[in-house]
Write a structure and sequence with these properties.
By secondary structure, the protein is an alpha/beta fold. The chain is built from 10 helices and 13 strands.
């Protein structure tokens, strides 16, 4: 089993693992440093390594009205962790029971008894337990009493600033996907099931694949040069996409709408992942469909140029 639930006992072969403990939403350079050290430690001692995450994010639990801010879905995190070298992903289902668990009980009842963890890796600023009273020092001191070794990894800097999920979110909201990709080590990507839309794109010669944004962070609305991947086949595509509310059409509807060049297949009902490579322009309203189509022609030409340089 490679997808574990914190409410259930860990399978016997995974007991005694090294656990990278954190939320690891974007799995950026800083998160990779923690997971990488956990993997090195595990290999030295010939142990499995588990990378954890929390879902929903604690912020969403305590402040449910917070606008969507996720950088990855659970499925994306699973794929990223395993590709990085983890044996399994552990999901902490953040609910009232977990939120009310004291830091000491979290260590004793969950990490030690339920998981049988041998070691834990966290960032230096990691907090846990009821009221966020637990920290790296408590984890190290109290864990040692129960045979659990705890280590920390320092924050990773890129330039003169620490790599963080909030910094990446700010870059994406500012329309800077390339700068965000440097911190993520890959482009920000949205994964979803292609939905039926109102066929507006098909009518003007630009059929699009419609994806709901769901819990993902909303990047700066506008036109992007993108790549797409069909998960069932692995086929890679290039295109231009609109993210936003489509001000040209009524009613306004928030969508990610990629148009893939030289593709004529049927994507309805398929799961695809769309990666944002370059921001081209903000959303705009035009004086009629002819002006819109002329601009879309220019957008696609620019996207092809940018993606060609990227390739």
């Amino acid at each position: 089993m490679r997808w574990l639930d914190h409410r259930e006992p860990v399978p016997a072969p995974l007991r005694g693992a090294i656990v990278a403990l954190g939320n690891f939403d974007g799995f950026h350079k800083g998160h990779q440093a923690v997971a990488g050290e956990a993997i090195r430690w595990a290999r030295e001692e010939e142990r499995p390594v588990i990378v954890a995450t929390f879902d929903p994010h604690p912020v969403q639990f305590f402040r449910p009205d917070t606008p969507p801010f996720r950088l990855t879905s659970l499925e994306q995190r699973h794929d990223l962790y395993l590709a990085f070298g983890a044996t399994a992903m552990l999901v902490f289902h953040f609910d009232a029971e977990l939120a009310g668990t004291s830091a000491v009980d979290f260590i004793e009842q969950i990490l030690v008894e339920r998981f049988g963890a041998h070691g834990v890796l966290t960032g230096e600023d990691f907090t846990f337990g009821r009221g966020a009273k637990g920290n790296a020092a408590l984890l190290k001191q109290h864990g040692a009493k129960h045979g659990l070794e705890a280590r920390t990894v320092s924050a990773v800097s890129d330039g003169d600033a620490v790599v963080s999920s909030s910094r990446i979110r700010d870059l994406l909201k500012a329309g800077e996907p390339q700068a965000a990709a440097q911190l993520l080590t890959r482009p920000f990507a949205i994964r979803g099931i292609v939905e039926h839309g109102d066929k507006r794109g098909r009518e003007i010669g630009y059929p699009t694949a419609n994806l709901a944004l769901e819990n993902y962070l909303r990047p700066h609305y506008g036109i992007y040069a993108v790549t797409g991947r069909i998960l069932s086949s692995g086929e890679e595509l290039q295109g231009a996409a609109n993210i936003g509310i489509r001000p040209q059409f009524e009613p306004a509807k928030e969508l990610l709408e990629p148009y893939f060049f030289d593709f004529s297949g049927d994507l309805y009902g398929q799961e695809i992942e769309v990666a944002l490579h370059h921001f081209i322009r903000p959303e705009a309203r035009f004086d009629g469909l002819d002006a819109l189509i002329a601009q879309m022609d220019r957008d696609c030409a620019e996207a092809k140029r940018l993606l060609s340089a990227h390739s």
